[in-house]
Each structure stands twice: as structure tokens, then as C-alpha cells.
Amino acid sequence: MWANASCPGGPAPGPRLPAEACKLALMVLLIVAITLGNVLSLLVFLRAPQFRTSQGYLKTSLALADLTVGLVVVPYSVYREASGLAASQGPVGASGLGQSLPCFITGPIFAGCTFVSISTIFLLSVERSVAVLKPLHKKAVVTKRRTVWLILLSWSMSFSLAVVPLFSSPDITLRYSPCSKMCNYAFPEARLPGSSWNVMLLFPAFDFSLLGGTFAINFITFAAIRHYCKARRQLGSEVQGGNRLSFSDITAAKTIGILTFAFSASFSPIAVFVVGSVLGYQWCQFSFYAFWILTSNSCWNVAIYSAWDPKFRQGVKDLFSKRMLKAASQRASSAAEGDFSSPACVAVLKEMFRPENA
């Protein structure tokens, strides 16, 4: 995705075949985990009434970005590796097919979805900060319509940024790397990276700027929560005035803090790798772990929601309860009889742009 991680010839076939097969199995497992986890998240966010909020829309955007990685980016890597193993020649090298059209699709998609994830986490942190610091003003400041426009802006800016290297220099291209096992931005093999390669520093600079702002906002939010809890303990009852926080507000802030930490931990190896690549280092083995640790982050969010968010757990229970299954079957039979009610996703879209007082 981000750097010239290609190694001439790729890993040697033969003795490395079992290791490459294990890596391929890991990729297939990631496809299953990312797809199932994020489909479950989307079903809960779109069907559960408690997620028809600005926070729910932002989490839906985050799940869509992760699901795109699992359905587009990882399957292409599996295809390339499986093709190489089937031919008993190891993974496909960096030349020839490595410069095919799919790399110009999957590479920017992976970069764009990464930027969408961090920008969405930043927006989630801002939303929770407003809810904690100014609970009386939250409904006036953080509206559903504004949230939707911010989500659209986040996606458009993220994917525009993802293709900046391709337009900034005619020497930068996208090529499948047998080291990272992904499509990476790279220079042609006959050329060495020059000063134009410094544009790759734009990616970690953008991410760490947003991460730094996210950590600062979370620090302020948790400081306010700590002050509120301390005051409540001293008074022995709820804090009077307009700064009363619900358990749901505090839990949501903690969940977003954990999302921020998880993304930072998964992104840091990539940042180190990109900076090293710009400086001229080629870390073949490290590039694989860096890229796939970041990719695995796409299946962490559903686990974090399940562990820390009671509303999400309740939404999952409701989704699979007999009552919901019965209601779904009734809606299906009604549609068969001519009652074509709007699907859940259409109802959510209508609600997003509906004028609201809150």
C-alpha cells in the first residue's frame, strides 16, 4: 500500500512453501473474521433503534471501511498467493503481473479505508467529547445531518489523499509485493527512489496528526469524566446542574478510547516501515507483519464493541432473538403479499436526512 517493499524475486520456493501456506491460511481466516464481524456490526447498527444516532452512523461508516478491506483488498492478496503456490513457484514476483490493473484498485482502496478509519475514530472522539463536556448542547451541535455530511467528507478526502502519490510523480506506481503480500506504492525496478518519494511521508503525517488530536480529545474527555465521578462520590448523589452524565455516555467514551488505542497500536508498525522506506531501508519480512497487523485491525472493532458496549451486546441479542426472527418472517410474508415496506438501510437513509429538532 504505502512503500517500496518489493524484494527481487520474492521468497525462495521449496523450503519456504509451508511458511507461505500458513500465511495464506492466515489471510483466508482474516477474510472470514473481517466479513462476519463487520456484517454483524452493520446489521446491529442498521436495525437497532438505539443506534439511530450520530454515533451509530459513525460506527456504521467505520464498519463499512473495514468490510471493504475484507471483501476487496485481502481476497486479491489471497488470489495472488494461491496462484503462486498452485504453480509450485512460490508467491508471484514483483514484475509482470505485479503491475496489473487490480493493484491500482486495491492499493488506493486499502490506503483510503485506513484514512477513513482514523478520521472516523477522530469524529467519534469529538462527538463523545461534546456529549461529556456539553451534554445540554450536544443535540444542537451534533445532529444526524451534520454527521452524515462529515462522513461523506471523510470518505471523499480519504480516497483523494490515497491517490496523491500517483499524481505527484510519474515515477511512482503500484506493484504487488511478494514481501508484504499486498499492492504497494513503488518506483519502477530500474529506478531508485528519489526526492519525490518523500511524498509518502504524507500518509503517516496525516494519520499521526489525527491520532494526536484524537488522543488529546480523549484525554480531555476522560479528565472531565474523572472529575464528574469524583464530584459524584463526594456528594453521594448525582451531580446537580446540566452536567449530568449517563452510564451510556461514560461507556461509549471508554469504548472509543479503546478503539483509538487499538488503531494506534496496529498503525505504528506501518509508520515505522514507511519512514524507513523513505530513508532507503528495505525490510522485507517486517513489511509483511506491518501490513497485516494493520489489516487485522479491521476485525478488532466488533470484539471491542462486544466486550465494552452493553448497547451493542443487547443489539446482537435482539438481532438473533425469536421475536426479531419472527418479525422478519412476518415482514417477508407481507412483502410477498404486496406490502413493499422499506428495508432497514433505506429507512436509516431517510432518517439521516430528515429534518430534526435534535
TrEMBL record:
Gene Ontology annotations for the cellular component aspect, listed alphabetically: dendrite; plasma membrane; synapse
Organism lineage: Eukaryota, Metazoa, Chordata, Craniata, Vertebrata
Entry annotated with the keyword Cell membrane: yes
Entry keyword annotation includes Transferase: no
Keywords: Cell membrane, G-protein coupled receptor, Glycoprotein, Membrane, Receptor, Transducer, Transmembrane, Transmembrane helix
Protein name: Beta-1 adrenergic receptor-like
CDD domains documented for this protein: 7tm_classA_rhodopsin-like
Topological type in the membrane: Multi-pass membrane protein
SUPFAM superfamilies (alphabetical): Family A G protein-coupled receptor-like
Family listed: Belongs to the G-protein coupled receptor 1 family.
PANTHER family, per database record: ADENOSINE RECEPTOR A1, OLFACTORY RECEPTOR AND ADENOSINE RECEPTOR
Organism: Alligator mississippiensis
Sequence ranges assigned to domain G-protein coupled receptors family 1 profile in this UniProt record: 37-305
Transmembrane residue ranges: 24-45, 57-79, 99-126, 147-167, 201-225, 256-283, 289-308
Compartments where located: Cell membrane
Molecular function GO labels: G protein-coupled adenosine receptor activity
Pfam families assigned: 7tm_1
